[in-house]
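Technical note accompanying the year-one report. For the benefit of new consortium partners, we illustrate the data format agreed upon in the data management plan: each record pairs a sequence with a structure-token string. No post-processing was applied to the example shown here.
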Amino acid sequence: MRTVAGAIPREVKDGFRYDEIPWQRFPHFYGPGEEIPGLLVTLASNDAHAGRRALEKLWEGLHHQGSTIAVAALAVPFLLRIAATGSPGLRAGTLRRVAEIARCQHFGDGSREGLLKVAEDPKEAEGTTMCPVDWTIQAARTAITADLHLLLPFLPDPEPEVRAATAFALAAAAEVPRISSAVHSRLAVEDDPVVRVSLILAIAQLAREDQDEHAPAWARALWSDAT
């Protein structure tokens, strides 16, 4: 599970060849994994209303009460492609789903340490599959990293909500130097305050994982600046 989502062949992902994915091996929180492709197809359709309902159902099935589940990692490559090619109005929401699947949940822990965690307790297992939660998170992160070519073009998206969601998703990927450089470059020209905060938090999370010794002083200087 740890690598399977990132190892899905490019032609399978780009062709939306859902029948080549072993959905049946992984249930979602409310039913069998075989239901996920149908929801993905609806999300990718031109029917914005149906797509929004499908996104809500995917969220309930893949991310119940703040917890993620193994089949969610298999959905990540397709969610990224739907964000790129589907309804622009659902793009930010779809990217947020990807970002949440790929990180541990904090259940109200607003501390710096809690918010910037990127791995779950290795002993924590999903109740329905007994698959280690950390495996699912790492599989989703690997899947995001494999498809950075889809995410990075969203950093200058016209919609601030999409730019913020993109930073949230990029912070969960594993290719730190490349992503950090791209996010720093965007921060230099970004004028929306909410997006700027999202970019700074993404840089902080990436820097923490990369053990960048200069990052704390950089972040403190930004946060003490009234602008």
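Partners are asked to follow this layout when depositing records. The mean pLDDT is 84.
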